[in-house]
Amino acid sequence: MSSHEPNPDDVLTNPGDSGLDSVLIPEAGGVGSGTEVLVLQPQTTLKLRRCRLQVTAGPDEGRSLVSDKERLRCGAHSSNDLVLAEDRAVSRHHFEILTTERGWLLVDLNSTNGTFLDGRRVERAYLSPGAQVRAGSSQLSFTPIDEEVTLEPDGEGELGGLVGESVRMRQVFALIKKIAPLDVSVIVGGETGTGKELVARAIHERSSRGKGPLVVLDCGAIPPELIESELFGHEKGAFTGAMTARPGAFERAHGGTIFLDELGELRLDLQPKLLRVLENREVRRVGGNDVLEVDCRVIAATNRDLVKEIAAGNFREDLFFRLSVIHLQLPPLRERREDIPLILKRALADPEVLARHGRKHITPEAQALLMAYDWPGNVRELVNVLSHVLAFSEGEDVLPQHLPARLRGQARELPLPFNEHLSFKDAKEQLLENFEREYVNRVLSRCEGNLSRAARESGLHRKSIERLVKKYQLDAKGMKPR
Ligand SMILES: Nc1ncnc2c1ncn2[C@@H]1O[C@H](COP(=O)(O)OP(=O)(O)OP(=O)(O)O)[C@@H](O)[C@H]1O
């Protein structure tokens, strides 16, 4: 795996930090030593791990493969990723290359004639760039390819059910489009109701597995004693109540994607079992003897800070490492309030809503209250409030009095959002920074990213606006009308 050179303008932080969009690029040594989290800002680059395997001599000379798979198999059988069909001395499944936390691991699959690395027979060995592998009469050369992709906010204000025109959501859309075709695991973080499941669906639908199944398993909602059989399935009579055999979520997701919601709730003793499935791509049903091969992409969601959970001993670092090839953090709604009008507009234009409630209009006063509220339940809460309002408001106009009391109460006396647990100086500094960021963001959005106009309207010097834009890494360009 490549080492990541941070750009001086990048901000390094923890994935749990207040909803910053982030791409996590695990480094050798794992979470404790050197894991970097790169805050995804406009024009931030995303590093992708790929490798090339090329047959340089032997009957299949000229064949090659570029892959981003976590496990890449090579052999004579057609089910391998790289098929050496002509070489009679190659076994059906000869060797595989695994992406591990320490690098690319070459593993011989009990081949008849052995696997050789740089001339020496090996069972397991790490590959370095340019390594020469021999299988049967074939010589192969291995090259890691680290691709850097620049991610700019997407031009669209929605993607697969997700709505949002804020720079941060459009960055999320760009990231989804980029990573969907890659067959890598993803962890989606974010508070409850921020759209983690929608992200998983969008990734699945845009991947090569999109026509296959998407199996959703909520690790937090299943009784602890059933989770193992839900994940891996069970045979008839495996435990009291197992009247019939049942395939588990992994088996049902074969050829598609498994979405493990609330991964942070998964019991510690089950975590090694999950890791084993991910590494071997095989499951054994509870009470069963047969080993079943499963081929599915894993997307996991959590609203817990898994790095903190690892430090507290509640989550296994190796499992986290395995799953977090890409870590996408969704921002809470209160940090992208500018998305609220579009979410409301889309919801009101929904044909079902129109058929049931007719045309509705949210008055500017009601919209101001909706924009001022903090939405601890995020978009889910917003959608719920809207359905409540539609059910109880008569006439076309939605007025402030139609909104739940908690929204009206908060706007009357908006508390100063400071943290009293910090020292006075630090709390004041944090409050000021939040104010600066929010103020400049709003002025720039209003002025469609035009710095001179924003300077005029705010009474600030253009240089000061530029300094603040840089300090908070705001995307003035991305605020242009689309
Ligand atoms: N950006 C968005 N645009 C439109 N609707 C959204 C958006 N984000 C979430 N929603 C809606 O909010 C609700 C909750 O979304 P979802 O289940 O994906 O959230 P979640 O983060 O997985 O929640 P939880 O952590 O509680 O499982 C759904 O009704 C979904 O359609």
From TrEMBL:
A Pfam family per the record: HTH_8
Domain FHA: 72-122
Annotated stretches, region: Disordered: 1-22
Gene Ontology MF: a single term: ATP binding
Gene3D superfamilies: 1.10.8.60, 2.60.200.20, Homeodomain-like, P-loop containing nucleotide triphosphate hydrolases
InterPro entries: AAA+_ATPase, AAA_lid_NorR, FHA_dom, Homeodomain-like_sf, HTH_Fis, P-loop_NTPase, Sigma_54_int, Sigma_54_int_dom_ATP-bd_1
CDD domains associated with the record: AAA (cd00009), FHA (cd00060)
Example GO BP: regulation of DNA-templated transcription
Family matches, as SUPFAM superfamilies: Homeodomain-like (SSF46689), P-loop containing nucleoside triphosphate hydrolases (SSF52540), SMAD/FHA domain (SSF49879)
Keyword Disulfide bond carried by entry: no
Alphabetized UniProt keyword annotations: ATP-binding, DNA-binding, Lyase, Nucleotide-binding, Transcription, Transcription regulation
Domain spans labelled Sigma-54 factor interaction: 162-391
Protein name, UniProt field: Formate hydrogenlyase transcriptional activator
Species, as recorded: Melittangium boletus DSM 14713
